[in-house]
Amino acid sequence: MNQKNMRDRHLKKAVSCLLMMMGCLLVSTLAGLVFFRMGLSDSTIILIYILGVVVCTKMTDGAVYGLIASFSAVLLFNYFFTVPYYSLQVDDSNYPITFFIMGITSLITSTITSSEKKSALHARYEADQANAFYELTSSLRDTVSMEEAEKAIVRSFSKTFHVEAAFLPRRSQTDSCVNLQGAEYYAWPILGKEEPYGILYIPAANAEAFDKTQLLLVDSMCECAALGLEKTESLVRQIQIQEQMVQEHYRSDLLRSISHDLRTPLSGIMGICELLLNTNLPATRRNELVAGILQETGWLYSLVENILNLTRMEEGQLRLNRQPECAEELAEAAIRTTENRHPGRPIQFSIPEELILIDVDGKLVVQLLVNLLENAIRHTRNEGAIEMQLFLSSDQTEAVFAIQDEGDGILSEDLPHLFEPFYTGKKSSQDKARGVGLGLAICQSIVQAHGGRIRAENRLDFHGARFEVTLPLNESPSEKTES
């Protein structure tokens, strides 16, 4: 608040208190005149004036008005109720002592009343301060971003003072929690250790009505808000550092895994190529070697595709090209791709009777299913069966792709971590199955991007694992119109 407004406000308050004091003395004098006409004693009238002084002290700010009222009460009693009347002269020598005792009594009563009033105001201020601080700290405790903390501050000030507060953060000159246009506001800076966090605004109409305790409470809450913002800012920095550490950890794991897993297929491809170039082999043998190259390059292509998609998803650059797709055709495309990469590993497919349409990115869903099928092949012996099922959920609102194998199943300690990047399980035989642990992580990211669900479990009817992917159905034209 500026100095001019503060002076105007203090002047208005002083005039109001002065009028209140004059009113109390006027009422006391009128009551005394009534009792005087009724023939009551001077002591009764003196008590009425003392009562008026007490009321004046209670209803005004500061002890000075009580002191002025005490002195004025003695003069008024002398003027209206002692001989000669309507004069400040005193004929009775006993009245000066009466005036002295009356004045002392009024002063003591006024001082005690003023002290009790200050104590009550201080107690109210401490209670309001405690409640306001509790409200503010509680709202700031669970915030994990500066935006949430700023909104919590606005809510706390608005609730405590019953106003429509606003906050203009330091990082923006236009973005605020409440529109400030078209109204006058008083501003309180919220200062950090190095620079201000922003400015708190309270409407002028409300701020001008605040008393001293409320103004002190605003200042104290601003300091508390600054501490809360400082804590939130520190938490945000810690989260960012942790995210960077996790990303660096992922990158190092990715590079280590890729360098390890690329070496084997590349070495095999190089060896086969040298064999094809330097020897005359029968056509059947050459075809077998070429098929081996095709299988290895297919695995490499799948790995690179998974890495690219994972990178795009982490950076938020992956855009879904949603189109109405036939779920059966997507499943068949995934089966063809998998069987071409893994000759001699047929996949059974239970075809649904009804046509199932889903609104998805077809390319990503095919990759999702291929990853699950290849995961099943890696963990199933050559004689084990791989099966894919497609059906509707019980409420007919979702399509369910189920892929199950006849492998060794999933260890209980592996189940919570299956969809984490670079997690490849704890089985000792895992070294036999090539993989960097990205396939299932990619599957979960694709499913979540489509608003679906994925879960893994061990089969109850047979040994092996079962993965279920649930995707929402495509809305019919009539449903879209209704919505």
From TrEMBL:
<dbReference type="GO" id="GO:0000155">
    <property type="term" value="F:phosphorelay sensor kinase activity"/>
</dbReference>
<feature type="transmembrane region" description="Helical">
    <location>
        <begin position="95"/>
        <end position="114"/>
    </location>
</feature>
<keyword id="KW-0472">Membrane</keyword>
<dbReference type="InterPro" id="IPR036097">
    <property type="entry name" value="HisK_dim/P_sf"/>
</dbReference>
<dbReference type="InterPro" id="IPR036890">
    <property type="entry name" value="HATPase_C_sf"/>
</dbReference>
<keyword id="KW-1133">Transmembrane helix</keyword>
<protein>
    <recommendedName>
        <fullName>histidine kinase</fullName>
        <ecNumber>2.7.13.3</ecNumber>
    </recommendedName>
</protein>
<dbReference type="InterPro" id="IPR003594">
    <property type="entry name" value="HATPase_dom"/>
</dbReference>
<dbReference type="InterPro" id="IPR052023">
    <property type="entry name" value="Histidine_kinase_KdpD"/>
</dbReference>
<dbReference type="InterPro" id="IPR004358">
    <property type="entry name" value="Sig_transdc_His_kin-like_C"/>
</dbReference>
<keyword id="KW-0808">Transferase</keyword>
<dbReference type="Pfam" id="PF13493">
    <property type="entry name" value="DUF4118"/>
</dbReference>
<dbReference type="InterPro" id="IPR038318">
    <property type="entry name" value="KdpD_sf"/>
</dbReference>
<feature type="domain" description="Histidine kinase">
    <location>
        <begin position="257"/>
        <end position="475"/>
    </location>
</feature>
<keyword id="KW-0902">Two-component regulatory system</keyword>
<dbReference type="Pfam" id="PF02518">
    <property type="entry name" value="HATPase_c"/>
</dbReference>
<dbReference type="GO" id="GO:0005524">
    <property type="term" value="F:ATP binding"/>
</dbReference>
<keyword id="KW-0547">Nucleotide-binding</keyword>
<dbReference type="GO" id="GO:0005886">
    <property type="term" value="C:plasma membrane"/>
</dbReference>
<dbReference type="InterPro" id="IPR025201">
    <property type="entry name" value="KdpD_TM"/>
</dbReference>
<dbReference type="Pfam" id="PF00512">
    <property type="entry name" value="HisKA"/>
</dbReference>
<dbReference type="InterPro" id="IPR005467">
    <property type="entry name" value="His_kinase_dom"/>
</dbReference>
<keyword id="KW-0067">ATP-binding</keyword>
<feature type="transmembrane region" description="Helical">
    <location>
        <begin position="64"/>
        <end position="83"/>
    </location>
</feature>
<keyword id="KW-0812">Transmembrane</keyword>
<dbReference type="InterPro" id="IPR003661">
    <property type="entry name" value="HisK_dim/P_dom"/>
</dbReference>
<feature type="transmembrane region" description="Helical">
    <location>
        <begin position="14"/>
        <end position="34"/>
    </location>
</feature>
<keyword id="KW-0597">Phosphoprotein</keyword>
<feature type="transmembrane region" description="Helical">
    <location>
        <begin position="40"/>
        <end position="57"/>
    </location>
</feature>
<keyword id="KW-0418">Kinase</keyword>
